[in-house]
Write a structure and sequence with these properties.
By secondary structure, the protein is an all-alpha fold. It has one domain. Helix 3 packs across helix 8 and helix 5 crosses helix 7. It is globular and about 60 Å long.
Amino acid sequence: MASLPSDTRLPLLSAAMAAFLCILWGANTVAIKFSLSGLGPFTAAAVRFAISTFILWTWACLSGEPLRPAPGHLRPLVVNSLLFTFQLALVYVGFTLTQASRGALLTNLQPFFLLFLAHFFLSGDRITWLKLIGLILGFSGAACVFLDRPGGGESFMAGDLLLLVSTFIWACSAAYTKHLVRSISSVQIVFYQLLFSIPLFALGVPVWDAPMVTEITAEIVAAILFQAVLTTAFAFVAWTRLMHTYGAVALHSFVFLIPVSGVLLAGLLLDEPIGIMIVLALVLIVAGIFTVQLGQHREVAGLLQRRGS
């Protein structure tokens, strides 16, 4: 297991930044829906990641962060980018067929899928009783999303399933990334994810996007810039720095804000109906996140206690 910070408490400003970043990621589902109102899904993804790649490249050059992969690292970076591209392709197509609030819930099942995969494929990560309870709560929330069938249920079902599959692929990618970060910097991993995805999304434009652009408004431009600048480039750099300083355990205490902000903002900005089943799904998923985190905190506390004895 990787080294852990001796104190998982965050100073007020760092805690506020972690909360802000999670709210940004929650708002990302709303921004995707806004961008898809005028752009095809592959067009929107290609534009977003082209902008993000340029920003990350500029930041790496200014900060002296090396981007050139070491010998033997290019192949795993390509594999990781293929997983990333396939996952995001399903996300963007899925959001054309379902609501942002539902997507905010389904995409936040990733920690539960990752926990399940880690139990079998990553040494040192095991499902305890608390984590098992968290898994049951989280997937019960997913069941509530699928049981909620407002008007247009057929379309929502297709979109919901695409997002569920994309979330599982995201968990697979995250498990693979846990293996990569042992030898490759997180900056290189994200940079090449974005870079290699651009031509792949561009190739999909003439096949899937008909038309590429239906309209360009200030809201659509703002939505693309929000995704590219804030939730991809800025959030990654800021979260990585917080992670290096305080560790994952402290930061994960804030991830419950992602589904909460996603559902609330979908209702406020997109005027989506937030029914009782969606509220119940949100409660169950957030409760599952808290329960899993409690199990992780207990494991970390036990490890620190053993190290100190």
